[in-house]
Amino acid sequence: MTAPIAIIGAGIAGLSAAHVLNTAGHEVHLFEKSRGSGGRMASKRSDVGSLDLGAQYFTARDRRFIDAVNQWRAKGCVAEWDPALYQYRAGALTPSQDEQPRWVGTPRMSAITRAMVGDLPVSFGCRITEAFRGPQHWSLQDAEGHNHGPFSHVIIAIPAPQATPLLATAPKLAAVAAGVVMDPTWSAALAFKTPLETRVEGCFVQEGELDWFARNRCKPGREADYDTWVLHGTSAWSRAHLDASKEQVIEQLHGAFAEIIGCAVPEPAFTLAHRWLYARPAQSHQWGALADADLGIYACGDWCGTGRVEGAWLSGFDAASRLLDHLQ
Ligand SMILES: Cc1cc2nc3c(=O)[nH]c(=O)nc-3n(C[C@H](O)[C@H](O)[C@H](O)COP(=O)(O)OP(=O)(O)OC[C@H]3O[C@@H](n4cnc5c(N)ncnc54)[C@H](O)[C@@H]3O)c2cc1C
Ligand SMILES: NC(=O)C1=CC=CN([C@@H]2O[C@H](COP(=O)(O)OP(=O)(O)OC[C@H]3O[C@@H](n4cnc5c(N)ncnc54)[C@H](O)[C@@H]3O)[C@@H](O)[C@H]2O)C1
């Protein structure tokens, strides 16, 4: 019997790779350090309902990804989100509607990766710290010192700075990953008992602390008891405030939001902040995925492509396709 393929990371890239390999008849096993799947597409359950603190929506431009989105729509875990879009620049908030279809997981962003997990074997709460290559097989060690294996191949589907030490056996791949800079994003959520008197549902901000804000509860399928908003700091602001307290971050982003939104903003009934240390690659790449096919180790994730949900999915697809090609 052949050993299964190990996939480290149950975000959209790892699960995209898992789907391709599983469909081709290969046994896979995923390792995920968090308690659930999704990574930067995860949603946070809170007292005011679930909140999409990471990816807000995604676009689909590549034919293969469009097909995947259509399959998720058919399963009911993705719906189109057509918000009243605005932009803020030169001190003015103006409507900025466009024709671009935008998609979200429903009833929350994490519904997509949850559906992709299906009955695939995943070890949750398991952070992999090392990958070893034996004479024939791979084995993995986790943060608690437990060993996992044997595996025929390893796919590392985590942000580049976290992937680098796991790629030590393949120094060329490790060097490429080590050169990738990933920018942070501070995310804050505010919930109001009485809805704000504004038509804005999503806003691209082009100056100041904020990059984007959205009315979370107007996405399809979301709980609507509170008027919930998610605010994202720019990469520059987030980096400059990397070690700020959550209270300071909420206060500053709330203040910036209140300046822009153009209506009365009362004290929120609920707030939270989350720091994404490795939110997005500082620049796009066109690598697809990294591979040392002879060793049997691959790396993928948004940082190998466009730094978006679609790029991450395509990168996982590419890693798995290269592995299958090498087996033929
Ligand atoms: C604030 C924010 C807003 C965004 N907005 C958008 C948007 O609107 N549209 C868009 O298209 N994209 C957006 N993105 C980007 C998008 O979320 C990512 O490109 C995509 O989700 C990355 O997927 P991934 O699978 O490559 O990585 P991840 O989602 O990071 O998945 C990696 C997984 O690996 C796990 N992991 C890490 N290290 C280990 C380890 N050692 N052992 C085991 N498990 C490990 C992590 O817990 C995680 O679950 C946003 C990202 C952020 C942070
Ligand atoms: N905050 C983070 O950490 C992020 C990490 C990774 C991606 N992030 C944001 O995700 C969206 C997704 O990009 P996309 O799929 O290319 O979507 P898009 O809607 O086409 O937007 C791209 C970019 O174009 C500008 N823009 C688009 N539509 C409008 C509009 N109607 N009015 C004004 N400007 C528009 C805008 O600058 C968008 O950012 C993207 O927002 C990433 O920033 C966050």
From TrEMBL:
It catalyses: 1,6-dihydro-beta-NADP + O2 + H(+) = H2O2 + NADP(+); 1,6-dihydro-beta-NAD + O2 + H(+) = H2O2 + NAD(+); 1,2-dihydro-beta-NAD + O2 + H(+) = H2O2 + NAD(+); 1,2-dihydro-beta-NADP + O2 + H(+) = H2O2 + NADP(+). Substrate binds at Y57, F58, T59, A60, R61, T185, R308. The keyword Acyltransferase does not apply. It comes from the Bacteria. InterPro entries: Amino_oxidase (IPR002937), Bac_renal (IPR034721), FAD/NAD-bd_sf (IPR036188). FAD binds at A13, E32, K33, R40, Q56, Y57, I128, D302, V309. It is an enzyme of class 1 (oxidoreductase). Keywords: FAD, Flavoprotein, NAD, NADP, Nucleotide-binding, Oxidoreductase. Its cofactor is FAD. Pfam families: Amino_oxidase (PF01593), NAD_binding_8 (PF13450). The keyword Oxidoreductase applies. Its EC number is 1.6.3.5. Residues 108-324 form the Amine oxidase domain. PANTHER family: FAD/NAD(P)-BINDING OXIDOREDUCTASE FAMILY PROTEIN, FAD_NAD(P)-BINDING OXIDOREDUCTASE FAMILY PROTEIN. HAMAP family: Bact_renalase (MF_02074). Catalyzes the oxidation of the 1,2-dihydro- and 1,6-dihydro- isomeric forms of beta-NAD(P) back to beta-NAD(P)+. May serve to protect primary metabolism dehydrogenases from inhibition by the 1,2-dihydro- and 1,6-dihydro-beta-NAD(P) isomers. Belongs to the bacterial renalase family. This is Renalase. It comes from Pseudomonas asuensis.
